[in-house]
Write a structure and sequence with these properties.
Elements lengths: L10 H17 L3 E3 L10 E3 L2 E2 L3 E3 L1 H22 L2 H8 L2 H4 L1 H15 L7 E13 L12 E8 L6 H17 L3 H6 L5 H16 L5 E6 L6 H14 L5 E5 H7 L1 E3 L2 E4 L2 E8 L11 H12 L3 E3 L2 H6 L2 H7 L15 H9 L5 E3 L4 H12 L4 E5 L8 E2 L1 H10 L8 E5 L5 E7 L7 E5 L2 E10 L11 E3 L8 E3 L1
Parallel strand pairs: 4-21, 7-8, 7-11, 11-12
Antiparallel strand pairs: 1-2, 3-17, 5-6, 5-19, 9-10, 10-11, 13-16, 14-15, 14-16, 17-18, 19-20
Helix pairs in contact: 1-6, 2-14, 6-9, 8-9, 10-11
The chain binds adenosine-5'-diphosphate and magnesium ion (2 copies).
């Protein structure tokens, strides 16, 4: 696919628009702390992003937006179905300690107990690629929307991503592409997520209670989170927000009855921007803190059931014949919703011990380039591709550790040429692939009829921030 401005740009023009782009990014908060000094706001740089919006087929963008509400409701259904969660994760939790520890909290609070807080809030980001099986030659109308995953915890870049649409509008105007600039769609991801947090805060029904952001020890991406704080305050300036690390929660949070209290504040919502990777639980104390939070009356974003519903294993189990259908009652147009959801699925295969898993191994070893091997991990950089699939599966052999993974069809995404703007790096035209992230928010009441709402916005970003230009 080509962006519509003719590329490459002449060097003088490029230098000019890039200089303007960088200053705009600074002045509009598309910034990050630096890798060298990740806990200091004394040194910052613009966040890595592309100069121009990437072309996204309108049809596929609309499909992704339209199916978001279905996915919100599907996950709502999954979180209410402990049999489904338990049977889906049965094999993985035997070999994956991290998932097991999450599951144990889930079991204690939701399966064997009654949670103190029936309200759940989830801020999701469903990620997609556009499958272009015929490479660069693939026309837009042959491309297919393929879901990579749904993130149910710490979905990031709504804050920075929302500003990137405006930056791209500005850049296009500087390239005399004002018609195109005017046609860029507005990105409402940030306001949607803030609205989700504020609505949940209201349902907690305590004006003095705060929203606690559980943050990383190393906060390079702090400004993405600050945007969300500011947006919350735009809606309601009286809501107290606070940023606390796991160590703060461990040392100073306590429960009074079932209320969660820290530093004199009752907590209405614990919004997790951390706690999704094993190395973030350095000792048993982090697990104890997570359990205390889960048991408390604070609304969790996400609850541990949504966290588990976002695992790769649950994603794979949902792709089985009949699995999405199991949740049909949650949709107003049951069969049609199931079809919309299924249409976004890539092939997903179990690696559980047994004949089905054996067949998956055989398939993967025959043509490893056609697949991605995925462990139960979040945060990028954990997946296994190509030859490494062969060596990993051979290493594991007949061991039960195989069930830590699932296998997925590898998407051949459309390639787009664009300029990457990265700190300390020369800006050159390079080939890239895009991943589209659609945000969704859902508030639900456990064990009562669902009262959900959703809001779809968009941001993209594993590597760099982008905005879609619909073609
Ligand atoms: P994580 O939760 O760590 O982000 P993902 O499933 O999103 O895990 O995978 C991380 C990255 O790997 C994706 O952003 C994408 O670039 C690549 N990837 C994942 N699944 C596929 C796939 N099926 N085909 C092609 N690339 C993939
Ligand atoms: Mg993820
Ligand atoms: Mg991902």
């Amino acid at each position: 696919m080509e962006t519509s401005v003719s590329l490459p740009l002449e060097q003088d023009l490029l230098d000019d628009v890039v200089a303007k782009d960088k200053d705009y990014a600074f002045l509009h908060g598309i910034i990050m702390r630096t890798r060298q000094d990740p806990n200091s706001s004394e040194v910052i740089c613009y966040a890595p992003h592309v100069l121009l919006p990437s072309p996204v087929p309108k049809r596929l963008f609309q499909q992704a937006v339209d199916v978001q509400k279905d996915f919100n409701l599907l996950l709502h259904g999954v979180t209410h179905d402990s049999d489904f969660i338990t049977s889906s994760l049965k094999s993985a939790i035997q070999v994956d300690e991290f998932t097991r520890k999450l599951y144990e909290i889930y079991e204690e609070v939701y399966v064997n107990g009654t949670p103190a807080q029936p309200i759940q809030l989830a801020l999701l980001r469903a990620d997609y690629m556009f499958d272009a099986a015929r490479g660069k030659e693939t026309p837009a109308d042959e491309m297919k929307l393929r879901q990579i995953e749904i993130n149910t915890i710490a979905s990031s870049f709504a804050g920075l991503g929302s500003q990137v649409s405006d930056l791209h509008r500005y850049n296009l105007r500087n390239l005399c592409e004002s018609k195109k600039a005017a046609s860029l769609s507005e990105n409402r991801a940030l306001s949607g997520l803030a609205q989700g947090l504020v609505e949940a805060w209201k349902l907690y029904k305590c004006d003095r209670a705060a929203i606690l952001f559980l943050i990383e020890d190393v906060s390079q991406n702090i400004f993405d989170q600050r945007w969300l704080e500011y947006e919350i305050h735009k809606i309601n300036p009286t809501i107290h927000t606070m940023r606390r690390k796991f160590s703060d929660v461990i040392n100073r949070a306590k429960t009074e009855g079932d209320k969660l209290v820290i530093d004199g504040y009752e907590i209405a919502i614990v919004y997790f921007r951390y706690g999704y990777m094993p190395n973030q639980y350095v000792s048993e104390k982090e697990w104890e803190a997570r359990l205390m939070v889960e048991k408390s009356r604070a609304i969790k974003c996400p609850s541990i059931s949504y966290h588990l519903a976002g695992t790769k294993k649950v994603q794979q189990e949902l792709s089985r014949v009949g699995a999405v259908e199991r949740f049909q009652k949650y949709f107003s147009d049951g069969e049609a919703a199931v079809k919309r959801i299924r249409e976004t699925f890539a092939g997903l295969y179990t690696l559980d011990m047994g004949s089905e898993g054996d067949a998956t191994v055989k398939m993967a070893l025959t043509d490893p380039d056609k697949y991605v091997l995925k462990p139960q991990r979040e945060g990028g950089g954990n997946n296994i591709f190509g030859k490494d699939i062969t060596s990993t599966l051979k290493d594991i052999g007949e061991d039960e550790r195989r069930a830590e993974y699932i296998l997925m069809d590898r998407i051949q995404p459309a390639i787009v040429s664009n300029y990457q703007i990265r700190c300390w790096t020369t800006t050159e035209l390079i080939d890239m692939v895009s991943e589209l992230g659609i945000f969704g928010a859902i508030i639900c009441l456990l064990r009562t009829k669902n009262t959900g709402f959703d809001d779809g916005g968009v941001a993209a970003g594993a590597a760099v921030l982008d905005s879609p230009y619909l073609v």
